[in-house]
Specification:
Layout lengths: L1 H16 L5 E2 L2 E4 L3 E5 L3 E2 L6
Antiparallel strand pairs: 1-4, 2-3
């Protein structure tokens, strides 16, 4: 669905812009069905300056 695709894109975006010593975990929720999808924790990919 469109919501799942948006969640997937956001998950990659967050991982790219989080510093290398941090992680992200993306969860997609709706008001009607609560949790729709959960992506596993992913290490940040941004190099520290």
């Amino acid at each position: 669905t469109g919501a799942f695709l948006l969640g997937s894109v956001m998950q990659h975006f967050f991982a790219r812009y989080v510093s290398i010593n941090s992680f992200t975990e993306t969860v997609l929720r709706t008001l009607e069905r609560n949790e729709v999808a959960r992506w596993p924790a992913q290490l940040g990919k941004r190099q520290t300056l």
